[in-house]
Amino acid sequence: MTSTSGRRAARSGWVTFVGAYLALAGVLNLLWAAGALADKRNFAENELVWSTLSTWGWIALFIGAAQLLGAGLVVTRKGAGPWIAGFLGFLGLLVNFLAIGAYPIWSAILLAVNALVVWACTVHSDEFF
């Protein structure tokens, strides 16, 4: 085994981790958005920091869709994938932090998932290339 193939095998774990967790964050954001847009009974709309639950639902929908696309870029090892994944993880952190009043437990779970994506993209960025 050459050193190149050994390095390739060693770095594939973090690429898979970021791709899987970003896809998980995307799916969870899409579910949150669908719930916020379809059935507002399960949310505390008066606890939102800004705007209405419908606005946050649409924001979460776009962030979730972008996170799924970003996960695909990371897993296929496209050039800008890690930077896009880190940025989308940060956007996910921001959205879930600002919407934490509407559904606290779900937002806390998404905060942890997005924080892990940002952490892996920043600490292990050299392993993506």
UniProtKB/TrEMBL annotation:
What domain of life does the native source organism fall in?
Bacteria
Task: List the transmembrane segments.
Answer: 12-35, 55-75, 82-99
Q: Which Pfam families match?
A: DUF7144
- Where's the DUF7144 domain? 14-125
Q: Which InterPro entries match?
A: DUF7144
Q: Keywords in alphabetical order, please.
A: Membrane, Transmembrane, Transmembrane helix
Record's keyword annotation contains Cytoplasm: no
What protein name does the entry list?
Answer: DUF7144 domain-containing protein
The organism's taxonomy opens as: Bacteria, Bacillati, Actinomycetota, Thermoleophilia, Solirubrobacterales
